[in-house]
Design brief:
This protein has 368 residues and is of the alpha+beta class. It is built from 12 helices and 11 strands. A 6-stranded antiparallel sheet has the order 3-2-1-6-5-4. A 5-stranded mixed sheet has the order 8-9-7-10-11, sandwiched between helices.
């Protein structure tokens, strides 16, 4: 095996990458859309956006890949960034660089690889957009061009995303090691500690801007039964699938995280009160429709969620702390469970937050 080489401008490249505050950050819904599209277009086993960071490659977005990072020295992407053209490996077993690579001889048993370098606005190669298969594959010129087009899309998203996002101030305030403590390793979204930090910041921002904040707390229905019947690996896939669906279903400024176990929290800055129930039911419907995880027999598991909602009005953002808000959302979630699951219940924090609890989803979305 030939270890991945190090670019001659590595020091400058690494500084430029770190300045973007993109490492050890939650999944990005727009980047996830690109990798899902690549999976559909190529029919490949694995798709990833890989960023090369010191001695590791961090997967900013990934499809059918359970780990969030691997060692850089064994990475195919470490080789790909050395070239301006795509790296094409039809059969890794016949390539002297990779034939005895542990990613080839062991899991995920890579056989074919196509990777296109992605660069930032300063011209430094950050990593790659890559498609990987467990079978030998000869990529066509059209397929290579398609992945190059998708890679340019990735570059555009990275250039736009990491400038003016509501979550970026937290990322700028912390170094990479600190940020890693705020990310859930299974799903790539914020963990409980990160959610609590971000909720506190969003409440402070709402106080200054005089804007509302909505909160959803979600719980996977009958998750213990899913685990007991199918095993924890299938349960993990259900959790990963739901996290991806939530991230891609909400607005760019919304914040999603895993609160613990099978519970998730969504922080919704600026959400209008009259839109809360619609959006809550929409999340329930979308997860029921799109969460398609096969069980150990290959049959699709039926997955639903219950949602508890609360809302902080512009007039009362100074009255409530993060713990009170999360507790109210949790109380609302308990009522949703009592109501039969796969539904939404709302509890107001104050007199400004009166909203009728509906038994079924509104027929259409109210204006934003």
């Amino acid at each position: 095996m030939k270890p991945a080489p190090i670019p001659s401008n590595e020091v400058e490249r690494q500084k430029s990458l770190e300045a973007m505050s993109v490492l050890s950050t939650p999944r990005d819904p727009e980047l996830d859309r690109i990798t899902r599209l690549a999976e559909r277009l190529f029919g490949s086993d694995i798709v990833a956006i890989s960023l090369l960071d010191n001695d590791r490659q961090f997967f900013k977005s990934r499809v059918n890949l359970s780990v969030s990072e691997t060692s850089r020295d064994i990475s195919f992407c470490g080789h790909a960034v050395m070239y301006d053209a795509p790296l094409v490996v039809p059969n890794a077993l016949e390539d002297e660089r990779f034939h005895d690579n542990p990613l080839v001889t062991g899991g995920p048993e890579i056989r074919s690889y196509l990777g296109v370098p992605i660069s930032n606005q300063q011209g430094y190669k950050l990593g790659t957009l890559c498609v990987i298969d467990g079978n030998q594959r000869n990529f066509t010129k059209e397929e290579i061009q398609t992945l190059q087009d998708l890679a340019r899309w990735v570059e555009t998203v990275l250039a736009l995303r990491y400038t003016e996002r509501s979550q970026q101030q937290l990322l700028k305030d912390l170094d990479t090691a600190q940020r890693e403590l705020l990310i859930d390793t299974l799903t790539g979204i914020w963990n409980r500690r990160g959610l609590e930090e971000l909720l506190s910041r969003e409440i402070s921002a709402a106080q200054m801007k005089k804007t509302p904040v909505g909160i959803f707390m979600l719980d996977i229905d009958h998750f213990k039964s899913i685990n007991d019947t199918n095993g924890h690996l299938i349960g993990d896939k259900v959790i990963q699938s739901i996290s991806e669906i939530m991230s891609s279903s909400l607005r760019d400024q919304d914040i999603t995280g895993r609160f613990g176990g099978e519970e998730f929290v969504c922080i919704l800055p600026g959400l209008r009160l009259e839109r809360m129930m619609y959006l809550g039911y929409k999340i329930c419907e979308t997860i029921a429709e799109q969460c398609k995880v096969p069980n150990k027999d290959g049959e699709q598991i039926s997955v639903t969620v219950s949602v508890g909602a609360t809302w902080v009005s512009p007039q009362t953002t100074e009255l409530y702390g993060s713990e009170q808000i999360l507790q109210m959302a949790d109380d609302a979630l308990y009522k949703a469970k009592q109501a039969g699951r796969n539904t939404v219940r709302y509890l107001p924090l104050d007199a400004h937050g009166s909203l009728e609890v509906l038994d079924e989803a509104p027929p259409e979305s109210p204006a934003v």
